[in-house]
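Risk register update: the risk that structure generation would not scale has been downgraded. Supporting records follow, first protein first.
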Amino acid sequence: MKVLVFDIFGEFAHFRKFYTTSSPLSFPFPPPPTIFGMLGAILGIDRKEYLETFSFENCKIALQIVNPIKKIRLGLNLINTKGNIWIPLKKKNHDARTQVKTEFIKDPRYRIYFYHENEELFNKLAENIKNHKSYYTFSLGLSELLGDFQFMGIKEFTEKENGEIYVSTLIPISLILENKIIFEEGKSYFRERIPLIMNSNRIVERYEDVLFESQGKPIKVKVDKYYQGDDGTNVIFL
């Protein structure tokens, strides 16, 4: 199976968690619907269509953490546009702006493994990434957080079954056999619940718990299915 491998990175990223309100928190990595939006930006696919174009029925995606996850909080000044106008002065019962503490990922870098059954679309995406072309502005969660991407290659991956192996990407908890995780010194293990499938009405239809190591180190687990690259890298598609 041909898999497109590329990195996405930037100075800051924010992937808003669905349950946060006044002080937005960020996922440590972009969930699949967010990644699909990034692919849509590179290819020029409308925001109303990309979720169908990149549905799990016709594509596979895996994500590897490259740079260690570093979170910081910054204050964002949001202007008050109530009534569809902005009054730049503070008056009685009116503040011109509100400062909101927001969580960001500092110096994020992730490696994406992507497969699509539509060979024409797959080749077009690979060509755009290789030539550093993007139809829409590429950003990391928020339009103000400009991102970048780098072509790493097109590699051959083979499906394997039932192995106790080191996995470089996010690992769905549901695929771990016998709850077997081999914990090792010097590694930080985390579990995160992320939106996995979102429909065209932008309603999440399925969530998934995933296991990851915050420094980007591989995790040794026993899984029922994984894919191995020609360079020996083991990945699990979400």
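Supporting record for the second protein:
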Amino acid sequence: MNTLQAGDNAPSFTLENQNGETVALNTLLETTQVLVYFYPKALTPGCTVQAEQLRDHKAQLAELNTVAVGISPDPVKKLKNFETKKELNFDLLSDEDHAIADAFGVWGLKKFMGKEYDGIHRISFLIGQDGVIKHVFNKFKTKEHHQVVIDHLSAQ
């Protein structure tokens, strides 16, 4: 796994969101910087807490010129279910073949309860409007992810 770092150009992507609509990174960057956060699986405890916190702090992120988008290998239908059940208010993007996760360097070997498997590592990237990665968030607890991001943005 070769994770992208601050200063790297973010890979361009176009993926389907939970509503089956096409979302392109380049389009988002026309108006704001973007927090691209990768998460392993919709409706699991850690991913739910992380998404709910971003939902609850969406306005605060907007004040800091930032919009969040979540990317997972879940199919569109599961993302819609996640959005509906948890009343999420931002785009969840489907990367079923994990091509975008590979491009960002967040797909790789994981260990859980003694088992090894390939999957998404929970890493977030702050991408400036110029398409360059400004910061990589890779050390946080899911319930504190939003605050780590907000603290970083506020300090800029």
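The chain has one domain: 14-155. On this basis the risk owner (M.S.) recommends closing the item.
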